[in-house]
Amino acid sequence: MRRASSARGSANSLGSAAKAESWPTAHGGYPSDRKRSFGQRMKKSASDGGARMRKALTSPFLLLKKTFSGRSHRSARKRAPTPTRDLSADFERESEGDEALKQCLSTSVEFEPPSPPPPPRSLWQRLIDWVLLLLCRFVPALCDTTPEVPVIEPEPTIPEEHTPSLAGIPAEHVAGVRELQKRLAPFIKEEGEAALSEPLMLLRFLLARECDPQKAAAMWRATHAWRRLHVPRALQELGSFSNPDHRPLDGAPCRGEWTWRRSAVADVTTVRGRIAQNAGTSSIHRDVLADDGGVTTVSRTGRLDMAGLAREHALDPVLMFQASMLEDVLQTVRAASQREKRLVRAHTIFDLDGLSVIATLRHVRKFGPPAAAVAQRYFPEVNSSTTVINSPRGVETLWGIVSLWLDQAMRDKVSFRGRHFAKALRDHARLDADAVSRLPKLLGGEASNDLLMPCPPFSKHDRADLAACGEPVFVHEVPLEATFM
User: Fold this and answer.
1) pTM, entire model
2) 166-484 in CATH: which number?
3) Where is the composition biased (Basic residues) (predicted)?
4) Calpha distance 374→458 (Å, rounded)
5) Phi, psi dihedral angles at 386 (to 5 degrees)
């Protein structure tokens, strides 16, 4: 039975195929005068639907192709480039009989037809170019694959006539210091004695701006504009000079002399100065010298009353104390550099004992950025190392993670230690046993703790006293700072 049914099916199929071959197919389709079977109607609808689907799917891409290419290939073929017209015949007809013009035309350069324009790029070529452009933009390794050939320049030599003025400058920075001197020559003359113009001081600005003379000159000018507005008042209200001939912004540190000393709180006469002196946490220890000759400064940052600082709005007095402290350290190392004919920098110890992590995270955003901006913009290369001791649990681990994104120079400059910091004072702060013994007892030394700042809490009347005293604010805007920096 199965063989008979299969034979009948094959016979029917052959018969239908023979009938289909006999039908007229003038338009490539099935005849309309005969009744179509169900299979024929399904096949027809499927072919029509596929054509409509192909048209719907390809029409957006064809539209994009026309948009990006500017014109179709058919219009490009119609607009074939025409050769440039030779104008020499027209010139000859217009100037017939002029022998001089004919001679000029005979010796003139012949016109050459321009090269035909390149064929328009397809949509896929433009898409590939766009993807490669994005990759080169965001992947720096693909921007330039040519190996960089190092340029070996001869080391600059110091002429004999410039040896006294550039003494102590490393050979690799001689050219940068000289370029900085040329850029700042008119401004140094204008500043007079207040100018930080000696080569060792210019070297600090150069190192602070990655040895770029243009950026160093901008920092130098911004620094002097800021110093004229802030340094004299901070030094006069919070201390005095032991030598009566010295004054703020004079040339004594350039000669190796610096005699300013901080006054006691009881000796400060202004309300803003008294609050600033109470809020101060840093002290300079001139007899504690590192093995490179730099002085040591100690900052009891953990004892700063951050909640009271935010409550009394005492940021202005805090910045006054910071300006006096940074100026004291800068002029101390500047005078030492002039005496020793080499670059001398300080070593800073931050004591975080008593620090409240919660209060710090809550209030540090109010005074941290302004204080950091003053130190980074206007006091170049003052510190050689920063050693943080008595850090709370977890801070040292957090610094280890953050330091992974810093360069080696910054990691070498900053070190965090917990309660056991004796080795850090010896290895990182570069203090020998004799220098450590001169530190206060709270820092592992033998000296009195009275050498440290007392750091009392802010009074609840400081805000009212500042408002009632009528004294001008300390911090002023530097008009030209944005242009210089």
Assistant:
1) 0.66
2) 3.40.525.10
3) 71-80
4) 23
5) -130, 115
